[in-house]
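Section 3.1: Structural characterization of target chains.
Under the original work plan, the team committed to producing a structural model for every single-chain target entering the pipeline before any wet-lab resources were allocated. The record below documents one such target. The sequence was received from the expression subgroup and is listed exactly as submitted; it comprises 562 residues.
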Amino acid sequence: MCGIFFSLSRDDREFLDFKTKRLLEHRGPDSIRGHSTLFGQGDGRFYATLWSSVLSLRGNKIEEQPVVHIPSGDVLCWNGEAWSSQGMDIIDNDSSYMLYNLMMPAMPLEAERTRQAVASATIRTLSSVRGPFAFVFYDAENRFLYYGRDCLGRRSLLQKVTTDDQLILSSVCDNSSGEKWKEIDADGIYMVDLDYPDLKHSIAAATTHIPRRRGGELDDPFPSLNLSVDSRLEDLHSHPSQVLDALRKSVKVRTERVRRAVKYVEDPHRTKEEARIAILFSGGLDCTILAKLVHECLPPEQSIDLLNVAFENPRIHNNLDTGVSPYELCPDRITGRSSFAELLTVCPGRLWRFVAINVPYKDTKKHREMVKRLMHPHNTEMDLSISYALYFASKASGMVHDSSGERAYTSTARVLLSGLGADELFGGYQRHATAYSRRGYDGLLDELWLDFSRLGKRNLGRDDRVISDSGREVRFPYLDENFISLVLQLPVRSKCDFGQPETTTSDDPFQFLEPGKRLLRVAAWFLGMKKVAAEKKRAIQFGARTAKMETGKTKGTQVLLD
């Protein structure tokens, strides 16, 4: 994972302010450096400045960025994980690999290497990448600049055009300049023609948006949502194993070959190899399934940390009896401990650490401005309450119980797994049940497609900015391209059959487990986690008690005023 900063301007001013640079360093503590290049002459002269910080997670050495090919002048800032490109798996560090592929796009004949033909081949190369990414690529020979995000927007990239028409891109912003930042949409790639005749007057006019379209030059990798309703019973019972197999592959690629931290610190309490993987763990269905699959994928000597966050909420916890912990009363703490106990039963031989992260109200207030800065340009009460939970959970500092008793502990894991995406794909929100009650399966299908299509705009960029400030990378196994493609093609009744309410008169889990995310519930049942399979859905801001800390009258959609 990396932090990216890029500016395109008519002079050589330093647009990277100190505060933004510090935020970039938080994202990539292993390396940070800059690179500048000049092109054009006279009034058409432009300066490009690129900075990248690096969190080194793959390969056996730190690959510093920006990655520069000195003979050609090509430069790449790459923030993400390319698991494959052009049909080939990428096992080690991917940044140099991606620069090579972008420099040498597949061309039919040397004689056909026109600027536009090279640009089309470059777009096809980017189209083939599977995995989360945001990037800036400068093609010096052909004088094109490319930037954008992956098809879901799993990595952050913000943009602003200043009042004097300078283009600035960044993974994160300080937001103190007074000029408006916006999140780049995850619906395509942007290409700036640096030979555009009137570039000196308008960068926007020289910029082309290449949209993602199914079967297009920049391919949308996802099939249409399966709109069928009727499902044979035997088909329904085959779907849990299909889903688990696909999810297991997604977990495996996201957890294998994660390198130990560059600045590794030995722990005197260590009994097995320290955790390289941690899970954002509420104890709910989605994250506990991930924990079980991580157990299956990792060697037994690696420990796994479960990060469970709970907040002191003065509106709820003001009148507690002496000695009663507000944190242990939080719903996610109760569920987390219950699911942790079930994991210990079904996953013997593994060293698990349940990291109880307790956040006093004074700490919430102390970090309010930092959290707002990180989640910007998102700015609602709901954004803030969700961001609080992710921000403190990703710091990974809390209390654990082990053979030496209770002690303070900070996880060494630099890869965090999140269950985000499961609710959108499998119908886990109350609004899905409401859509069915109003318009039947047509309404449910519309709601599922709406949730999936707006994932990048609503959640992912914000979550990446907030979590990455800890110097850790979040990965989303439920948002693997192959996994999503499988789930989109499954009939809706196998995923969440609100037309078949749960019943107590059957021993078939497809009938006695609740309809929301029923397919995942059955999968958990088959994995031996029967309590988890029956666990009710609860939004993170309510489970961790970050919602409505000062007043119960606040709406989640309310815009922050301070």
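The radius of gyration is 24 Å.
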